[in-house]
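Q: For a teaching session next week I want to show students how multiple molecules come together into a single three-dimensional assembly. I've collected the sequence lines for a complex. Could you give me the predicted C-alpha cells for the whole thing so I can convert them for display?
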Amino acid sequence: MPTVRVTRRVHFSAAHRLHAEGLSAEENARLYGLCNSPNFHGHNYELDVTVEGEVEDTGYVLDLGELRDLVEAVVLNDLDHRNLNEDVAWLEGVIPSTENLVVRIWERLVEQIPRGRLVRLVLWETPRNYVEYSGD
Amino acid sequence: MPTVRVTRRVHFSAAHRLHAEGLSAEENARLYGLCNSPNFHGHNYELDVTVEGEVEDTGYVLDLGELRDLVEAVVLNDLDHRNLNEDVAWLEGVIPSTENLVVRIWERLVEQIPRGRLVRLVLWETPRNYVEYSGD
Amino acid sequence: MPTVRVTRRVHFSAAHRLHAEGLSAEENARLYGLCNSPNFHGHNYELDVTVEGEVEDTGYVLDLGELRDLVEAVVLNDLDHRNLNEDVAWLEGVIPSTENLVVRIWERLVEQIPRGRLVRLVLWETPRNYVEYSGD
Amino acid sequence: MPTVRVTRRVHFSAAHRLHAEGLSAEENARLYGLCNSPNFHGHNYELDVTVEGEVEDTGYVLDLGELRDLVEAVVLNDLDHRNLNEDVAWLEGVIPSTENLVVRIWERLVEQIPRGRLVRLVLWETPRNYVEYSGD
Amino acid sequence: MPTVRVTRRVHFSAAHRLHAEGLSAEENARLYGLCNSPNFHGHNYELDVTVEGEVEDTGYVLDLGELRDLVEAVVLNDLDHRNLNEDVAWLEGVIPSTENLVVRIWERLVEQIPRGRLVRLVLWETPRNYVEYSGD
Amino acid sequence: MPTVRVTRRVHFSAAHRLHAEGLSAEENARLYGLCNSPNFHGHNYELDVTVEGEVEDTGYVLDLGELRDLVEAVVLNDLDHRNLNEDVAWLEGVIPSTENLVVRIWERLVEQIPRGRLVRLVLWETPRNYVEYSGD
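A: Of course. Below is the structure for the complete assembly, covering every listed component.
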C-alpha cells in the first residue's frame, strides 16, 4: 500500500512573554526586544499536524476528524485563549518561544497518534514566522 | 478628478481580556466565555485603513508610505506587542473588544489624515472575525 | 453609541449542478457549460455574515459566538456536506447558483438576528468568484 | 427580482515606474521614493471586478465566465507581462500609479458590461496596498 | 548545475462521496460521517505539483507553463467540475478519499514529466486538510 | 537539545525579463513566451528563509529579527523595487528565472547565518509558482 502524509491544520489564540529568569531586566530586553514586554502580548497560532502511514482499505491513513479531536483534547483545550507563561501545566518553567512550544506539543502528541506516526509539526506564530519539528 | 479609495493594511500582535468591571465573576464568564480568561490571551490583528480623495497630479490620493508612517506613530507603536487592558493610555477604562478598539483607533486617526478623508477601518481579530467602522 | 459592523466568516462544502428545467439539454450545456455537468461537482464555500448595530456596554454589537451558532443552526447544518439540488428543503425548485443561494440564506437569517440588523452577506464559491447581497 | 453583486477576481503581472515628467530628478525621488527607481520594478496585481444587477431566471446576474473573457480581452491582454509605462496605448502619458490604473481600467470596462452595471473595481498592488473605484 | 524543485499550483472543483461497497450503511455512516452523505458533496481542490531537476542553461528546470498544460491534459480535464465517484475512468472502483486521489494523480503524471522528475504532490481538500505523496 | 527549523518570510517587488543572449529573437519568444516581453514585467516575490539548529537556552534557534535584518542587508536592499536584469551586481549575466534567483540568494546567505545552518529557501514568483533550493 502507498505511504501518504496527511495533515490537519488547527488554530488557537494565546498570550505569552519571552523572559529568561536567570537574566537581568536589561539582558532580557536586549535579547527579546518587544517580545519581553512585561504584561504579555499574543498571537493567532496555526498548527499543522502531519501523520504518515499506509493508506488503509477505507482510503484513510487515519480519520482527520479523529486526529482533530485528539489535538483538541491534549493540546488546544490547554492553549486556546490562555496565557502560555501562566496557565499551562506542561509549559511550566519553559520560555514559551515558538521553538519550545512546538517541541512540547510534539511530546504531548507523539505517543497518542492512533494509526501511522507523527512526522512533522509546523507552528505559525504570525503569517511571517513559523517553525517545524520532526522529533529530532 | 476621479475620487478613489486607497487602503494600507498593517498588523500588530497584542494581548487582551474581556472583562466588565461592574459585573460578577459569574456574569463575566457567562458573557465573555473563554475571552474572559483571567491571565489574558492574544491575537495577530490586521487593520485596513482606507482614505478617500481625489487623485492628484502625482497619481496619488496620498502617499501610502506616509499613511503607514502615521498609523505606526499614532496607533501601532502603542499597540504592537502590548497588553490592551494594561499598557495603552488611550484604552484606559475601555473593554478591549474589537468593536471598542476600532472606534478608538478611528478617533486617533481621523483628524490626522494629511490628504483626503478617513472613510473606513476594517479590523481583523482572527481570520474568521472582523469589524468595520466608518465614524457613524 | 457608535455604530459598527461585525462579521463572522463560516464555511461549508457542498455539491451542486446548474440546470434549468424548462430548457433543452443543448440550451443548458450552452448556458452553464461545465457547471451543467450531470453528476454534480462541488465547492468549499466561505460565507461572511455582517451585522450592524450600536456597540453595547459589553463592548459587543452582538456576541459573534452566538451569531456563529445561529448560522450553524439555520444554514450550515442544512448545507454542509450536502447536495444543494437534492438535499435542502428550502432550496427546492431553485437553481443553486451562488446568486440564488445567497438570497435564500439571507431569507433564513434576516429575521433571526438577535441584536442589530443583518446588512450584508458575502458568499465565496471559489477564491476567484464571490457574490454579495444586502436584501435589496 | 433581488439585486445581487457578483465579482470575478483576475490577476496580471506588470512592470512600472512612478515618475512625473514635469518634475526634477530630485523632486521625483523625494515624491516617489523607491517607486521612482529608473529601470522599473513590478508587481503581481489582483483585480476584483464587481457587477450589480437583478438575478435572472438562469440564476445569474451575468455569466462570470463571460465577464472573465471580457476583462481578458479589453484589459488583461494589454497589461499582463507588460510594462505599464511603455507598452500600453491607453496608459500613454499616465503616471501608472494604482489610482490612475484603476480609473483607466474602469473606463475600458464600464460601457462593455453585457448585463447589469459595473459598480466597483478593487485593484491590489501588493497584499498590503489596494485601491477601490466606483466611477465617481 | 544546482538542483532545484519547482512547483506549479493548480485547482479543480469536484463532487465526491466516501462509501465502502463491502460495508453496511451503518458501518459506512460510522466510518465516514458526513462524508458518506448519499447525494455527494464537493470541494475546491488545490494541487501542488513539484518537479526536481538541474537548472538548464535556459534558467529553467522545466517550463512551468508546459507543466501546467500537461497537468491539465492528463488530470484536470478529467476531474474539474466532475463527480469523482461516477465520472472518472481512472478512479473506477476507488474510494475517492484525498489519499487515494493523490496516489492516482501521481500514477497519471510520473511517467510523463518531460524534464526532471516528479518528487512531490500536495493535494488540499479544504484550507485545513491536505495530503502529500512522493511515490513511496 | 531538540533540533528545530525556523523560518522568516520576507517579500520584495521587482521587474525582470527572461532572455537568453545566445538565442535569436524567435527562439527567445518560443522559449519564454510572455516572459520574454522586451520592456520587462514584474512580480511581488515572497521568500521563506529556513534555518535549522538546536534550540538554545534562550528558547531560540536564532533571533528571527536578526535573521530578517541579515536578509534585508544582503538580499532585499539589492532586489526590492529593482530590475533584476539591470540593477543587481550579483545577478550580472544571469537569466533572472526564479530558479537562478533562488540559487544566487542562497550563495549570498549561506555563509552569513549567525547560528544554525541555512537548510531551505522557498521563493514564490506568483501565488501559483514557487521554487525550493537546499544547496544541492
